Amino acid sequence: MLNNPEWYVIQVISGTEENVRQSLFQRRESFGLEDFILDVFVPTHDVVTVRAGGTQVKRKKNIFPGYILVQMVVTNESWYIVRNTPNVTGFLGAWNVPVPVSGEELDKLKWMLERNAETFSTKYQVWEFATITKWPFEGNEGIISEINEKKGTLKLNINLLWRDTPVELDFTQIKVK
Fold this sequence. Notes:
The chain is an alpha+beta fold.
């Protein structure tokens, strides 16, 4: 009877997380370890970067660079195969003894991934001068007073009816001078 599979944290060379994930799946099949190495997970979330001109670029960003999770049954062979996969530097644990991730830690990770499903990134800064490029306030100019990267919005103070009026806009609706 096999032990119950558990999740383990694997240290990898930063930037190679996705390559290691693919290699582990290939090695699992090559060595017939489908019953021992069950799943490989790279914790990521989407980041939307808004570039000049309002173009949006979506990419995946690793939450824990240099680490991936592997669900496996630890045997001498499965441990050896994972440990000797290119770009793997070791298991997270005490003295080369893999320590499984607790259910509570796994739940926290899942919660964090759901909470950070998508974030925005921009080079806009508070107090920068910007012009609105989209209707209904197209052509109005103002100063950025607040940036919310979680929602992908900002507040721009424009002169509307001879008063400073904060207008909430999407990152793609402005152009910085």
